[in-house]
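Private note to self, pasted from the team thread so I don't lose it. Backbone tokens:
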């Protein structure tokens, strides 16, 4: 019964599976987020822009709005930088993982050849 599983495991292209794992993970996370998030409802804008014919806001009000916008931009920039670093680290980890799997695959193949040679040597000695 274990032989079909071994054949199935040998047929699977593990290098491709590991290479595409981050894409699958991202797609799964997006799907989960879409299912968890409630349906978007139209929201009123935070600050209503005054029509051209209306009274002009004071300089203090404009400065406050500008300061608020600058803080939001700074916060979004920091978030974007952190996300970029995280994605870069994940890509590096993925590359190291693929390399490690390749090394393990080569070592396993060498081990199997070594065992086969030893087995042939034992059979030859027993035959002698």
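Design output:
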């Amino acid at each position: 019964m274990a032989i079909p599983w071994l054949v199935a495991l040998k047929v699977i292209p593990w290098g491709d599976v590991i290479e595409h794992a981050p894409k699958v993970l991202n797609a799964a996370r997006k799907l989960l987020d879409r299912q968890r998030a409630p349906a978007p409802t139209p929201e009123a804008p935070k600050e209503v822009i005054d029509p051209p014919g209306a009274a002009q806001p004071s300089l203090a009000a404009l400065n406050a709005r500008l300061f608020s916008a600058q803080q939001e931009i700074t916060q979004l920039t920091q978030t974007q930088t952190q996300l970029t670093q995280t994605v870069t680290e994940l890509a590096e980890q993925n590359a190291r993982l693929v390399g490690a799997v390749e090394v393990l695959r080569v070592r396993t193949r060498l081990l199997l050849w070594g065992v086969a040679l030893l087995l042939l040597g034992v059979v030859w000695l027993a035959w002698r």
